[in-house]
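Last lecture ended with a question: if I hand you only a sequence, what can you say about the shape of the protein? Today we answer it with a concrete record. The protein is RNA polymerase sigma factor. Below, first the input exactly as provided, then the predicted structure, then a couple of comments.
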Amino acid sequence: MLIGRVMHTDTHRAIDAVWRIESARLIAGLARMTRDVGLAEDLAQDALVAALEQWPASGVPDNPGAWLMSVAKRRAIDVMRRGPMLERKHAELGVELEARQEQAVPDLDAALDDHVGDDLLRLVLTACHPVLSTEARVALTLRLLGGLTTGEIARAFLVPEPTIAQRIVRAKRTLADAKVPFEVPRGAEFEARLSSVLQVIYLIFNEGYSATAGDDWMRPALIEDALRLGRILAGLAPREPEVHGLVALMEIQASRAHARVDATGAPILLLDQNRARWDRVLIGRGLAALARAEALGGAGGPYALQAAIAACHARARRAEETDWPRIAALYAALAQLAPSPVVELNRAVAIAMAFGPAQGLVLVDALRDAGTLDGYHLLPSVRGDFLVKLGRYEEARAELERAAALTRNARERELLLERAAACARPVAAEAT
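The predicted structure:
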């Protein structure tokens, strides 16, 4: 009995792994034929249910992806034969019903096997269509291309599961109501859509790399999902420099993951990390992707510029070897291209490291006075760091305590409070 339960569990793990790998390709092929992302996902889920019902008894097939595709094809053919969809297609094509029925199966069967890469590109561009809100794009992308369940997405972003479920349902309905074509747009529309795709993948990665809330400093699963999506997109759009720029940024940043936390999961800041623990394979991949972006003329793109900044850190074997003047210059270029208070805050850090904390403090004080980052915990955190370096410990403690009160991440709060407490010791020493 125990052996049977173990085998059953192993089979379910195998099904889960296969689904993560094959679901996007499966849904993409079905969406091209049905022109309905929601229906395509339903058909793919039907195939998954069939696997859950049959594989524990029959065993995992030699080619599980092909098995799922075969089941999904049959169900798609049944839907097209029964429903108004086939009649609509007949009317559009001006073909007699009887003749079309004879050809439906082979035509559909062949079409589902062709142009897998094109189908995946269509799917990612559809999931990230600007008609959807950013939150909906993130949820739908992780569902359709990441293979995550609604519960997994909800846990990753610390959002109630019904909220994520509603976002996904609304997103699919919005795409259907807007009659968004399942196709790769051209020209300016393609660039706008691709920008949306990159933004979504970037947001997913950032949430994994520095969790905005919760008990963990990082969420490695989201980092992996974003990396996988970026690598897929780089294969689908190999001539787009900003795709390679984003992949370069993510690869290099992800290389630090094991060095960013200690054995208890507490954060370790960049300058304190053991760089021997940085993943040199990921760094190599990132530098290669950055070189591709630059070769395609994309060195000045926003993601490529951020990747170039990350590369400065990656190339420095010791923290003191970091080329801070170059990083400051790259942030200045990024601020010209995509001005934002957050970029300016990062530029202030680079300037402080390159030319001294007093110069960085001038920029940070300007941001504070402008009020554009009110409520953003990293502003008082950075200001507190500069004040510590300038020996203004009492002011620094107040800033770090304010940052701790603003962050929603428990690990980060602990770190900020520790740094604030450390400011009290020099003050006490001065008093004695």
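Comments.
1. The longest strand covers residues 213-214.
2. Residues 89 and 132 are 27 Å apart (CA to CA).
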